[in-house]
Amino acid sequence: MAFKIAFSAAFITVSLATAAHGQTAPSVEGNVSLVSDYRFRGISLSDETLALQGGLDASWQSGFYVGAWGSSIEPVGGSELELDLYAGYGGEIAEGVSFDAGVLVYTYPGQDDSAYVEPYASVTAMTGPAQSTLGIAYAPEQDNIGDDDNLYVYYAGEVPLTGAIGLSFGAGYEKGAFGDPDGDGDDKLNWTLGLSLAAAGLDWGLAYVDTSEDVDTGDAQLVVSAGRAF
Which InterPro entries does the entry link to (predicted)? Predict the structure, then answer.
């Protein structure tokens, strides 16, 4: 299964690059950050300790893009790295309304039989200065997630407070392979409220993160981050 997933990711990347052939050169952007806790859908994947993260994206004027993003994590088998590969397409539906859709492959270098695929889609709308996003991610049944599937639906909002400070908030619902970490039979809810600040050449963040799950890695937490895009 891991081989098939890796092959699929490579095929997607090549296909999108081929589709973009003949267009202007892609725009390439990168990012790097340090976070006090790597929280993914409310759950800590770094055992509530520091995580180093970074990514690289290439996008074309047509709307096609490919990218990779990685983070240090609490070991998954023999791997201490999550490396996500993704490819997709986005564009504007109407004035102030845009969409994004693609496929993401979660990989854990050094650990066999752990990679899995998750298609995703979202719609973003602007209402004055406020931005709202509704999204869905669905991992179909796969060997590497226990022969189960997984559904995640979420809302994310952002509102600028001043020129340098922004407010963010969001919530998500998850069911399936990753939707019940505490094993009580209830699906997982997660929510977050945060502030962002651009200062001293860095993007700073402070977020309150919590979930409905009664597990140590899902306890309420304040997460601090510092990063830079380039």
Answer: CHP02001
User: Could you give the CA distance from residue 123 to residue 100 in angstroms, rounded to a whole number?
Assistant: 7
Q: Can you give the CATH number for the domain in which 54 is found?
A: 2.40.160.40
Q: What is the pTM of this model?
A: 0.90
Domain around 184: 2-229
Residue indicated by tokens 């047509």: 62
Tens digits of residue pLDDT in 167-179: 999 999 999 999 9
